[in-house]
Amino acid sequence: MAVRPGKAAAAAGRWNIERTMTPARLSIIMPVLNEAAGIAAALQALAPLLARGAQVVVANGGSSDDTLARAQACAVPVVSSARGRAVQMNAGAQQASGAVLLFLHADTLLPPDADQLIRQALAGPQVWGRFDVRIAGQPKLLRVIAAFMNLRSRSTGIATGDQAMFMTRAAFDAVGGFPAQALMEDIEMSKRLLRLSRPVCLHARVVTSGRRWESRGVWRTLLLMWRLRFAYWRGAAPDQLAELYR
């Protein structure tokens, strides 16, 4: 969906007015697929934010395990959608009531004061942002990879889903949400949001699981990600890249 500059500016302006009137409520959207083993712990980790008024919406993409039941048992809103992280995040956002949206992977932990950091980050002219990331795992190379991810993101303004992207509701609506594509939706969303402002790059770290890296091999996964990004830059179709990723 193309965004006219006038429409984007108007949306951002409305947010500036609204946030001077009432405190922003944070909605955390968590897309899940077969996360039964960790979904309860992931939601429990958000309890302090819930106690301070945040909302959590779980977006289930047709899990074949007990993810749905375990999420419902945690007494948070659960929406079902077609499979696909972008589609799921958009479905979750439709059900969210917050003026600020945070998109969080199920295997990623936020800093305990994430809500306060986001509120401060969006107090100025910028309408979106992300956290630095640390990849949990044994291989020391994961620390180097995370450091380069943070540096690249700070330089280019492109965020990844692992970095827990957040944005105002007005900004999300202005760019039409996440593109309904099978892969690289975070890169494309960053490009859309860059039409509105540069991101706030918080130095506070989220901690994401290194399970993907360790199960596939760190070097093998790193080379695969470089290959996919280069192919996307060259114009390869996201569906084709998703097949390579799987």
Q: Can you offer a commentary on this structure?
A:
The protein has 246 residues and is α/β, with parallel strands linked by helices. The chain has one domain: Spore Coat Polysaccharide Biosynthesis Protein SpsA, Chain A (Alpha-Beta Complex), CATH 3.90.550. 47% of the residues lie in helices and 18% in strands. It has an eight-stranded mixed β-sheet, with helices on both faces. Helix 11 packs antiparallel against helix 12 (238-245). The chain is globular, with a radius of gyration of 17 Å. It starts with a helix and ends with a helix.
Adjacency order of strands in the biggest sheet: 3-2-1-4-7-6-8-5
| Main pleated-sheet profile | 8 strands, mixed
Tell me which CATH architecture applies here.
Answer: Alpha-Beta Complex
Could you give the count of β-strands? 8
Number of helices: 12
What is the structural class? alpha/beta
Overall geometry comes to globular
How confident is the prediction overall: mean pLDDT?
87
Number of domains: 1
What would a concise description of this structure say?
Helix content is 47%, strand content 18%. It is α/β, with parallel strands linked by helices. The protein is globular, with a radius of gyration of 17 Å.
Pick out its properties.
246 residues, alpha/beta, Spore Coat Polysaccharide Biosynthesis Protein SpsA, Chain A, eight-stranded mixed beta sheet, disordered N terminus
